[in-house]
Amino acid sequence: MYPLSYIEPVFRPPSEWKSLILQVTNGCSWNKCVFCDMYTSESKKFRPKKVKQIEQEIIKVAQSGLIVRKIFLADGDAMMLPFNRLKEILLLIKQYLPTVTRVSSYCLPRNLTNKTIEQLSELQHMGLKLMYVGCESGDNEVLSLIDKGETYNSSLAALTKIKQSGMKSSVMILNGLGGPELSRQHAINSAKLMNEAQPDFLSTLVVSFPLGEERFAKRFTESQYQPFRMLGQQELFNEMKTLLSELALEKTIFRSDHASNYLVLKGVLGKDKDKLLNIVQMAIEQSQSIPIRQEWQRGL
Ligand SMILES: C[S@@+](CC[C@H](N)C(=O)[O-])C[C@H]1O[C@@H](n2cnc3c(N)ncnc32)[C@H](O)[C@@H]1O
Ligand code: SF4
């Protein structure tokens, strides 16, 4: 039997499907991004978990005999915990689960402002190897519109700090986030941010609203922008074409295979840039000739 129980729902990056999810906080400390409904239910009110409880859970896992290699620290931004608390958690993992080789977490850029490169490097040496950063966009207008509470510069500062500490970064960019009006600048400035930061991994998702788009669309109508509408397939492919064309990455693993995407793209950038651009161009010009996910095959 699985040794842990969670305050549901629990979200993790798709690539962490094999990892043990250790819920060291509940919810997201920011919880204001207007596109994100992940932690808005009453049960997901933000709260860090007490260290004693975390220790009991780690002991439970150890006693279950499960061989754990990777751990993902949940929920939405476990990196908001202070340095000393993160250190305590990593020490407990080392003590009770010595087979663990990698710990990872979601991380908001602001989670790192009160942590030095030396502290992050210490955590890296203790096993905290990978930060998933939802930059969502590199465009300051889009970032302000979605209430991310971050900017191009704050995102770049965090990604640079992660690199300098020896950790790896995996960035998420959201296609369609600026609607048709901001689509081009969203793509260009997101590429610019990635080019400066050179993350280890980059994935793109398509913004989707399983609970309805009212909250998101309201932000557009309240400001000076044209009313929001979701980009159509062709518009999304064009946004992807602009993003890929502008990307000048040296060695970043690129994935656009999340269930929200119509078109699956995978490769290493820059090596595979031309190949990926060709696929996108085919999707724009002859969409019947390549596999495109049907609406019913998509999800969040
Ligand atoms: C569970 S969230 C946690 C991320 C972390 N709090 C951060 O902001 O860096 C993971 C990612 O899911 C994606 N996401 C959230 N809401 C989404 C939506 N409505 N449509 C598409 N992707 C979404 C965003 O890219 C977000 O960064
Ligand atoms: S995207 Fe991340 S920071 Fe924004 S509300 Fe969702 S979980 Fe919190």
Model description:
- The protein is an alpha/beta fold and 300 residues long.
- It has nine helices and ten strands.
- The protein has helices at 51-64, 83-96, 117-125, 140-145, 152-165, 179-197, 214-222, 233-246, 273-285, and strands at residues 20-23, 25-26, 47-48, 70-74, 102-106, 128-136, 168-175, 201-206, 252-256, 265-269.
- The strands form two sheets. Strands 1-4-5-6-7-8-9-10 form an eight-stranded mixed β-sheet.
- It is globular and about 55 Å long.
- It binds S-adenosylmethionine and iron/sulfur cluster.
- The site of S-adenosylmethionine (SAM) has 20 residues, from strand 6 and strand 7.
Brief rundown of the structure:
This protein has nine helices and ten strands. It is α/β, with parallel strands linked by helices and 300 residues long. α3 crosses α5 (152-165) and α5 (152-165) runs parallel beside α6 (179-197).
